[in-house]
Structures are given as structure tokens and as C-alpha cells.
Design brief:
By secondary structure, the protein is an alpha/beta fold. The chain contains 31 helices and 17 strands. The protein folds into 3 domains: 171 residues, tt1808, chain A (Alpha-Beta Complex); 187 residues, no CATH class; 237 residues, Rossmann fold (3-Layer(aba) Sandwich), CATH 3.40.50. Its EC number is 2.1.1.72.
Length: 761
Amino acid sequence: MSLFQNSVLNKYLKGLESEKVEEAYERFTSHFHNPTIQENIRNSKEEQYQGEFLIDLFVNVFGYVKNPTPDFNLTTELKNIKGSKKTDGAILKGEKALAVIELKGTNTTDLGKVETQAFGYKNNQPGCNYVITSNFEKLRFYIDNAVDFEEFNLFQLTKERFEILCLCLSSEYLLKDIPKKIKDESLTQEENITKKLYKDYASFRNEIFDAIQNENPEYDKLTLFKKTQKLLDRFLFIFFAEDRLLLPPNSIRSIVNQWTDLKDKYDEYFPLYDRFKKYFGYMNTGHKGHQHDIFAYNGGLFAPDKILDNIKINDDLLYKHTVNLSNYDFESEVSVNILGHIFEHSLNDIDEIQAEIQGVATEQSKTKRKKDGVFYTPKYITKYIVDNTVGKLCEEKKTELDIIEAEYEKERKGRQKATLKKLTKKLEDYRKWLLQITICDPACGSGAFLNQALEFLIAEHQYIDELQAKLFGDAMILSEVENSILENNLFGVDINEESVEIAKLSLWLRTAQKGRKLTSLNNNIKCGNSLIDDTNVAIEKSFNWQKEFQEVFAKGGFDIVIGNPPYGASFNNDEKLYFREAYSEIHKRTPESFNYFLYKIENIINTSSKWGVIIPSSFLYQHEFEKTRKYILDNSTVNKVLNLGDDVFQDVATPTCIIIASKEGEKSEYVDLQTIPRNLLPIEIFEESKLVNATSLIENESFSYIVKLNRELIKKCYNQPRLKEIAEEVATGISSGLIKHMFIQKKNILNSILNAQYLKN
């Protein structure tokens, strides 16, 4: 959720004037850390304190001038440019709002609920870059969009976190747009580090792989390549763990230095890889050392591997690449998000190398991931889909349990024990339910959607902890639920073995904590062909969902399915024949992988589930997918359709859409975002006010998921003879992603000679 890259943030933090920060922190703590004031704030209603809050924080601590004082740059009740709605406060630069402020009382625990309202105000203020939301106890700070934010607990804020708050909110920095500058520099730095690290990462893999082949001819190339990738995964985890103090710092560098000293100074040689294998063993079983202990993290990554434990690796290459990668700071430079991009790039390269090993020309194979129609999903897409599936299901459960935040904010003194017990029971019931929900990505790739779901669930457990702390007046202690989430809530399948291993690694990196064993994910993240359960068709990777996830299907199926199903994948003749028969309810003529995934999703979910996917927007209207659209409508309610247009995925022109559906529910909504500039899509996608009621969206002969605006035109078309009535069978050829070039504009029509018959009706 962090807005800033650590190394960039640290550079700006070093530039803070320590004396000014110290004085500001003293003013801040004298008010917001005063127990009596805290209690009074908690007992105040939103309207009672919001004006004073602006003075206490923005004026007294961060140096703003509030209206009506001359030359003010802080005001209240700023009206939208369009409409009559007003934001609670705004920071002004000249006459324009630079930041909008939306305030709630402390009885609003989840500030995420304020996002839609706050960004509605921002989008009505041209030139506004920042959104600030607060319930007087917590404060969130956003730049441009709602995808990432910084959250501060004002009542418990440390000096270190206050310095970051100062960079975000102080008039000295915000009015100069410094936070936006830090974010922009962070994005540039992340891009640069990603490119550089991936170059070194790929060089390590490729050179080690070449050397291993030469020194271990008894093994086939494909096996050695997979072991090379596993070795790299092990090193990456160690680099990450040692820089984040899960392991003794500079562990790899120390091993290399000790090996060099023994070889050069004491003439004691043994292969460098033997030293690393010993360390891998420590990671698996644990080790009590003279200077440092090593915890048994394991999780399967460091378990004994007969081939990997017996191959030979060139000393010089191993020395060169481990030292090179150890120069990166995996705490401040290399974030988990950067590693996510590294993993995605890696999967493309892996497929190229595997194609080469198997004798398939690279130009023909493209890469298996592109051949299989797989593309990296941007974070704002994964967040939107998770929020509207997992998030909606959680909201419905809290409503069912009658969990009302305001009830947990009331003063405990004088309340009956039975009331407190009842409120506690609601939270216990919610947590129990939360630990049992099942979320699946049937084409999980490197785990982007699973990681987003993990992030959401961790935040939801923290929300429960916060309500419990409010109820009993105790300090908030966050539950260590990450391993429980990995064991019970998250499931994934992918046809690519390396994708499965990398998805596991990405989840481990996000949840690893010092002294806590890694969760084995072998029963949750599996390799297989999600679409084919016939061993005669998919000989090695046929996948029987009911057999592989027996506990899930004993309860009726998954609660949530999310993902970016592959599209445009290639199939052999046996697979095409299989799809025609096994998917006969939705199959028409052209085999399309995402189409089959939609059918599969409907068959692996339970009767109260939700699902959300991003797929090509051709699904919304093409005749080829008419049977699938009807099948979905017969079995689920389509809640939301977002027509996104082109260029959502980098280097992919295919127009896409998001579909959110559920087994329970009646409301349908639609929004067309095709013409929105691509840089604004991460903002506009969360703008709920743009959704239009579309209950009658699908009331047409072909079940097209289109807006009402076009339905009359479609009806006109259906009054004309069908092409199939006057021509031979027509099938889809090569589909163009650049759909905008397929439209004829009025100005071109006027300058063209067109047969009047073509323009009839």
C-alpha cells in the first residue's frame, strides 16, 4: 500500500530540517497524544470536531492559514465545480484546490469506505492531486488515485512515522507538490531498478544454466533448467530475508568471504556450492551457530532435492553472480512489487528458453505465456476486482452479523456485560467466517491476484483487531494471521510449473516474518490444466478440480474466483475436439481459452459466491460468445460490466472489460471507459458515480452486454435478414485489437461515395 519507494523516501527524509520537525512533533504530541484529549475526540461527533481538527493538525502543526484569515490556503466546505456537494476541507494553491479533505467521526473505523466519496470531490476539482481522509484518529493520504496510500495512526504516531506525515502534509512541502514529486521519482526509480535487477537476474540464470549443462551432462536440459530456476528462487529469498533481518545480515557475502579466505589464505579448497548447500540445509532444518541462529523457514523451497543437491556448479560464476546480487538493498530498493514484475518478466523468458530446449523456433513459439494468452495485470485492476468480489462478500457478511462500527466506539463504562459479550461474539463469528472463505485464481501466473487478495484479507483482520481494541480500550495488537490465510483462504492453479513455484515464492516474500516457518503451499497452489480433466488429452497436466481440492468442494465449491484468464491461446486438434464435447453448452466454432474459463468458473463456485475477471471486450457483444453470455445469465447475476477499451495491458492493444458476477443479487451496472485517457484509467475505474443502472442491460435477442443507448440499433439490425440466411458459414478470422480504426467517422462518410443500399436503415 506504500506510496513511496524506500530509497527515494529516505533521500527526502534526510533533507528535513530536524529542528523544525522536532518542534512540530512536540506540538503534535502535546495534543494528539494527550490521553484526555484522545478520549474527548473519541466522544465527539463528526460535526463537533471537524473544524477544530483542521486547526489542531493543519494550522497548529503544519503551518496552514485557515479561512477567513487573509491569504488563507486552507478552507472548509469547498463546493464542487459541478453540483452542490461540498468537501469538508481543502488545501488551496491560488484559487484551486490542491488537496481535498474528507472527515468522519471516530465511529467510522474503516477509512476505505470514505474513498468513493472523497475521490468524487477530487474529480470535481481540476488540478487536484491529493486526497486526505481521516476519522480524527487515523489519517490516509492519497496521490492521484486510490490504488496506494499512506495511513497514519495519529494517536500512536512515532517520530519516524511523523517525519513521513510531515513530508506529506506540511505546508512547506505539500504546497510545492513535493509528495507528488517523491511518488513520480519512486515510480521512475522502481522502473530503473526493475530493469537493472532483471538484467542481472537473467544473466545469473542464463550463465549458470549454461555452465550446469556442461558440468552435469547426465541430466537432460529441461530438468537442469528447472533446477537452475529453483536455485535462483532460493537465492532470491535469502537476499530478501537477510536485508529484512529475517536472517543474519550479509549472509551470502559472509559465505563468499569465508570461502575465499579458506581457499587463498589457508589453502583449504572445497566448491563454493558446497557452502551454499550447507546454508540451504540450515534454512530447511534450522541451525544454532556461534554468532547467529538460523530459523528453519523451509516451506518446501529448501527441502532436500536429489538433483539440485548433487549437481556441480562453477565456482567463479557462482561467486560473480551472488556477489553482484548481494549489492542490491532488498529492504529499501527492491520492493515486493518490483519482485512481482521481475517474476512476470522471468516467466516470459522461461518459456522462450524451454521452447528452445524443446526444439521449437523462438519466432514461432513467441513464448508460452504469450502463446497461452497470458499478460501481466496492473495493480489497479487486481485491486478493483478484489474489492468488488472479496470486499463485497465481506461487507455482506458484516451486514448479516449486524456489525456496526459505531457500537464499538461507545464508551465501555456503564455498558452491560451482556452487550459487550454480544459485540465480541459478532467479531469472533466474523473472524471465524473470514478464516474459512475460499478464493481461487484458476490461471494464477506469478500470483498477482492472490497477492492482492492476501493484502485485502490481512487488512480485514486488522480491522477486527481495531474494533476489539476499541471495545475494550486496549492497545491494538495485530493478529498474525498471514499463515492462516495462506493455508485456508488462497488457492491457485496454473499450467506452467515455474508460474506455480514463483506464485508460491511471491506469497512467501509478502508474508515472511522472523522466526516463523513458511507455510507449505503445495496443497493450495497447484500445477495443472484448469480446463481439461481428461488424462488422454492433457496427459501430464489434466486437472480434476473436485479431486485436487476435496475440502473446498465438500462445501460446494469456491466462495470467490478472480483472475485474468488467458485468451488467444493455441490448441492442438485433440484439445479442440475435447472442448467441443466437454464445453458443448457454450462452444460455438472458434476455440477461445477465456470463453472456456468463464464456463469453468461457473462450475467451480458455490451457490453464494462471487467472481470477477478481466477479459477481451469482444465477449460483450460478439455472436461467437452468445451461448456463454446466456449461460452466465442463467446461472448468475452480472453485477458490473466495465468496458475499458484498449491498452490496459502494456504492449497489448486488445480492448478489455471487467465483469463482476454473483450467485446472489439483482443489481446490474455498466460503465463505458473506452474514451478515458489511459493515464486516468486508474482513477476513473473507481469512480462509482459513473456507473449507470443496467438492469435491462441484457434484454436483447443475443444477450449482448451492451448499454441501453445501443440497444435500439441492435433491434433494428435484428429486423434485417441474417447473414447466415444469405451466405455460407462465416467464422471469425484474425481479430483486430485496434477496434477504434474499424469505425467510420461522419466526416469521412460525407467525403466518400457509398452505395445507398449499405446505408439503409
